[in-house]
Amino acid sequence: MILSKFAERLGDFMVDSADNGLTLADKLGCGRNTIYRYLQANRMPSVSMTVLIADYFRCTTDFLLGLEDVNYSCNFPPCPAFKDRFPLLLQECGISQYKLEKMTKISHSLMGYWKSGTKKPSLYNIIKIAKALDCSVDFVLGRTKL
What we know:
Layout: H1 2-17, H2 21-28, H3 32-39, H4 47-56, H5 61-64, H6 82-93, H7 97-104, H8 108-116, H9 123-133, H10 137-141
């Protein structure tokens, strides 16, 4: 569902801005086939690409992903590296990593990789965290405050 909603919203933004796949790909620094895969709901973007697209169209990531029905258009600060954001997120939400692991069913080792910066979370895991913490994807990423 998220993938199809993302494809729909991306297509709507592209029509509104008169961007085609090639011009958008050039502006985002990716291949046009990547944009076409997004539009066909064949590929979920990475977290960083989701943020780039949301910044380009001046929308929240939550709206772009179809998790919100209202677009709060504004400029967002750059996202911190997730290895820096993750401990702050836990602190701001008053939750332990252990409890978040249980709520999301994301493994301890994977969260450990995020904390060390060895790996970055997938968009699906960011969405899981946002749902578990009852907050926005933008908040999880450090683009907005609670």
